[in-house]
Amino acid sequence: MSLGTVAVTGAAGNIGSVVREALRRDAARLILLDRVPLRPEAENEDVHTVDLRDPVAVEAALAGADSVLHLGGVPDEAPLDELLQANVLGTHNVLESARRTAIKRVVLAGSNRVTGFYPVAHLTGPREPARPDGLYGVSKVAVEALGQLYADKFGLSVICLRIGSFEHAPTEPRHLATWLSPRDAVGYIRAALTAPPSTRFAAAYAVSANTRRFWELPTPAVLDYTPVDDAELHAGNIPGADLPADPAAPQAGAYALPEFTLRHLRP
Ligand SMILES: NC(=O)c1ccc[n+]([C@@H]2O[C@H](COP(=O)([O-])OP(=O)(O)OC[C@H]3O[C@@H](n4cnc5c(N)ncnc54)[C@H](O)[C@@H]3O)[C@@H](O)[C@H]2O)c1
């Protein structure tokens, strides 16, 4: 099924680079945006050097897109001002462009870190209240809320993928629960881009089929993709994989520690 013209923000990043290669085959045209310069790697790719904080430049670059995969932003803990600018304002600019043009579907890069303070023993679903593990998580709560707003108020179709730990292979004990393999990432993203137009808003964890996962997998009614990889197959290569996890510990692991945020706050 052709995906039509798909715009990808943050296309130079870790996930963007992988997804770009996979989507190139299914999309009639790819519009690739990043603040760092990109080079077209195929005839159906257009590239734009754009700062997501600039609404006019974002809208100009997105012209002609049928859907947007919005990956651009700061992907980890940072001073709140940076997160508000890149993640919250950046997402607002993408959603505004969609509202003002013919873009029908926006897929947002949410994060598992919106619920990082739920304990490991709890199977967390996307409808539970947010418990962000840091300022980055707070910015992603706002990203998701913006998506919900634009769906409810302006009828845009928005799917927010709460991405797990995107890695080529899991390397630490937490990844045994949180890993998102590149293959499953592409599967979830393709499903989000092709979900029925009747989907107004959905939030779903994008995580591999890990034996130890603590997030609900999306139902087919929300997102028609069944993940295929399981981090458990890599457990033998991960030091500490055999140690029992504390069931009361936060799902975010070390990200939930005060120090992780304190280094971005005044002493
Ligand atoms: N990698 C993960 O495990 C993971 C987990 C959860 C959520 N996410 C989210 O997925 C998305 C992609 O993650 P990633 O790992 O590829 O991150 P990344 O840092 O590798 O890529 C992000 C890209 O966004 C671009 N960018 C940042 N600020 C920008 C701005 N103001 N204007 C234009 N471009 C800008 C960067 O240049 C970069 O190429 C992010 O939104 C991140 O928060 C990632």
Summarize the structure.
Helix content is about 30%, strand content about 15%. It has helices at about 15-25, 55-60, 80-100, 135-155, 175-180, 180-195, 260, and strands spanning about 5-10, 30-35, 45-50, 65-70, 105-110, 155-165, 165, 180, 200-205. Nicotinamide-adenine-dinucleotide binds near residues 14, 50 and 52.
What would you say this structure looks like, in words?
The protein is α/β, with parallel strands linked by helices and 267 residues long. The chain has one domain (5-262): 3-Layer(aba) Sandwich (Rossmann fold). It is built from seven helices and nine strands, in the order βαββαβαβαββαβαβα. The strands form two sheets. It has a seven-stranded parallel β-sheet, sandwiched between helices. A two-stranded parallel sheet has the order 7-8. Strand 5, helix 4 and strand 6 (157-163) form a beta-alpha-beta unit.
Q: What is the string of SSEs from the N terminus onward?
A: EHEEHEHEHEEHEHEH
CATH topology: Rossmann fold
Largest sheet: 7 strands, parallel
**Known CATH architecture:** 3-Layer(aba) Sandwich
List segments where confidence is low: pLDDT < 50 over at least 5 consecutive residues.
none
Overall geometry: globular
Domain module tally: 1
Strand content: 15-25%
Overall SS class: alpha/beta
Number of strands: 9
For CATH, the homologous superfamily is named as NAD(P)-binding Rossmann-like Domain
Average of per-residue pLDDT values: 97
Count of individual helical segments: 7
Cα-atom Rg, whole angstroms? Answer: 18 Å
Percent range for helical residues? 25-40%
Distance between the termini: 54 Å
Which cofactor or ligand species appear? Answer: nicotinamide-adenine-dinucleotide
* Largest sheet strand order: 3-2-1-4-5-6-9
CATH class label: Alpha Beta
